[in-house]
From TrEMBL:
Keywords: Membrane, Transmembrane, Transmembrane helix. It comes from Flavobacterium pectinovorum. It comes from the Bacteria. The keyword Transmembrane helix applies. Residues 366-388 are annotated as: Disordered. This is DUF2157 domain-containing protein. The chain crosses the membrane at residues 52-74, 80-100, 157-175, 181-198, 210-234, 254-271, 280-299, 305-324. Residues 374-388 have a biased composition (Gly residues).
Amino acid sequence: MIVHEKQFLDDLALLEEANSLQNAGFISKEQKDLIKKELPDFKNHSNILVRLGFFLLGAFLYISICGAVSLIGLGGEQSFFKICCYIFAAIGFGGAEVLANQKYYGHGLDDAFCLGALLNVGFAIGISTDGYELIIAVFVAIAAFIIYRRYLHLPSLLVFCLASAGVLFYGLFEFGAIGKTILPFVAMIVSAVFYFFAKKSIDNLKESYYYNGLLLANSFCLILFYLSCNYLVVRELSVMLLGNEILPGQDIPFAIFFYAFTFIVPIVYLIQALKTRDRIMLWISFLAIGFSIYTIRFYYSVLPIEVALTLGGLVLFAIAYFSIRKLKDNEVGLTFKPDRINNSNAILNAEALIVASTFGMKPQAKPADSPMDFGGGGFSGGGSEGTF
């Protein structure tokens, strides 16, 4: 199913590991270059800005091809309009196949054709079904999964996750008010099931090139699980979908459960992330805690916003200060020491910039060397050897 040679994918994993080892200082740049020379490599770009530039170039190329086809088919008028998106989607799949055979992988050009194909699949099914959301989500999910399995294209896997969530939501909408009522609980259960399925797949993984995809699906399930029963999300959806009017002094059904869920789940994420040293879950837990605070502030304004921000900043400062004091001397486990594998000087550079701006320091130009050569004295003075 995968168009790329598996040996190339394995070699790409080795090159990524070599880059990590070089950044950590375990091997030199010469050793890393020697490894890169010995292993065949894809045409790809790790720099996100370079990849974005090639994506824009690929999008322009894709649109140009579709425009040329449109000029040819304009004579068909209405009949061409009904099938044009299918033709554009086929162009996207064909371009992705050609680029994959030319060893393009995560380059930017392939991103434009893969995502363009998915976009046109959605438009094509929407035109054919008069905008039937469930059918659109089903076909987009299928197409996105095929592209991921064929080209290991991570953005397409993200589209698959979003489209699959759309299939779940729109599928429950088909059951009317009952489906809309049980939507939060079904989404919570489904995301939990797929989270543990992805987690088990990662633990039993043999092909390393599937790791990033499973990690992305795993993280998406964590986010969906939290949002499925977040109080703000559930309350606003109940008003939007069911038309419930919540008067002052009233609340949604099972409000206590949703309140507890909104605050307990981020704490569980945080504890589990610290226990398993899962950095992605740690960041998700921080975002979830922030959104939980926003959820309460959205409905209940206990303090003025400036007072709440000041107290929140003091609390965060105290937590950060005592956490650093506790962890700064740890050599293993949780520690505040720099990570050698993910070495970054961004914080140090920011610190130097802040100090320089605070004290008004400016970079000093190195003065030119003096044309007079001092030194050479044998006793106390410079040049005091009794000679000129």
